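Observation: inputs received (chain + guanosine-5'-triphosphate).
Thought: call the complex predictor directly.
Action: predict_structure
Action Input:
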Amino acid sequence: MVSDTIVAPASPLMPSPIHIIRLSGSKVLEILSKLTRKDFSSKEPRKFYLARIYGENGEELDEGLVVFFKAPHSYTGEDMAEIFIHGNPILTDYIVKLCISYGARYAREGEFTKRAFLNGKVTLEKSEAINSLIRASTLEGVKRSFSVLKGEFEKLMNTLREEILDVVSQVEASIDFPEDVDYELTYEEIMRKVSELYQKINRILSEWKSTKTLIYGAKCVIVGKPNVGKSMLFNSIIGYSRAIVSPIPGTTRDFIDSDVDIGGAIVKIVDTAGVRKTYDPIEKEGIERTLKIADSADILICVFDSSEKELQEDDEEVLKIIKASQDKKVIIAINKIDIGYSDFWINLLRKKIEEISEKNIEGKQFAIIPVSAKERIGIDAIKEEILKFFSQSISSSESVSIITSRQKAVAEEILQSVFTARNFMVQSDYLGTAYSLRNAIKKIDEMLGKESSHEIIDKIFSTFCIGK
Ligand SMILES: Nc1nc2c(ncn2[C@@H]2O[C@H](COP(=O)(O)OP(=O)(O)OP(=O)(O)O)[C@@H](O)[C@H]2O)c(=O)[nH]1
Ligand SMILES: [Mg+2]
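Observation:
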């Protein structure tokens, strides 16, 4: 049982109507009495009380609401308090420091939730759901996180565990009493059950890609040769002049990014250095970075300059990026249509892309959009295409899903164990089958945090905010 007392602001330190300070641990009552001159041990817990807050020399600082939670009936399972004060960052910071001088220490990232986990108040995947609920980039991502938080995923995992256990006990009975012909399941039935388990886990895993988008958002990278108008397009999409625009090719050297809300989805838009053959070492480094970040994108906006008469050698470099883009969504922006040959470029690029890509140009993954970054023509069409990427994720997903990359890695291990079990079964190796299925069960326990190492647990909570 952890007993030292932790304190942290649970709201961002900026001027706002209310700030909340959280405390958890054995000294909460003592600290509260020093702060408020009230004895909360004699008060009914889990109720709001109006209280004055006093400074170190007894001066009145503020008046706010205080709630005390008596262990184990609190978020962390320990004695806890939440203090609601006026949202001045200097005041909040002062009160937090005061709590520290009264015996608390500053909480680490996610430490409140970590204590809740260690005290058995939440399972590991539910702790992760709290974090992803706070960070989700879309409302749908919030809903998915909440479905895990309310136990839907735990239920799914427990059912899976039961099903595997059921098969394991049959397989183990066949090993222990081979002469006993009264098995409930025949070889074929075990085989069928193992295959069904495999498919079920595979289905859970296949939801990850769309859930990942809905929770963690999408990265949308703008690429193109120099001077096609990438930076101007970037500024038009994000809605203000963030990147430098100039007629000199090679203006953008490093990539620049900005998070934007596009129709209720948070998208990271990235402007990059124009790709071309160059001997300038700094520009070369910039281009390497462009290629790297383009590789990590979910959506590519490939920009071409329609004021030119034909495709240039450097445009071919961009076509190579499109060719390598595989499962990314690609938006082709034919820019400068205010001074360019829009139809010529649409036809040209349509043909080029059909040549280099197996993707269906009319399909969901591809879009060719005539744009003028300067006149703000086609910007809404680009945003709509970005939004389609999210709506595809919503329609292709069920509501119970894996919500973190850790869960995905564990689910892959479960899948692998069941796959190995199936292979052993093919060879009628019951011992190997039972061993692999037991392994899958261990992994399910790991998924729910029953079998996790300290390192894994520390790593998970280190991604949380302070005060959560
Ligand atoms: N007429 C017209 N000019 C544009 C348009 N978009 C960009 N330009 C001009 O094209 C030039 C290059 O624009 P940038 O946005 O800096 O181009 P870039 O692709 O970021 O260039 P690099 O950073 O050098 O790779 C500037 O002079 C812009 O004013 C457009 O839609 N129409
Ligand atoms: Mg630029």
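Thought: report the result.
Final Answer: The mean pLDDT is 91. The pocket of guanosine-5'-triphosphate (ligand 1) is lined by residues 224, 226-232, 245-247, 249-252, 273-274, 335-336, 338-339, 372-374 (CB under 6 Å).
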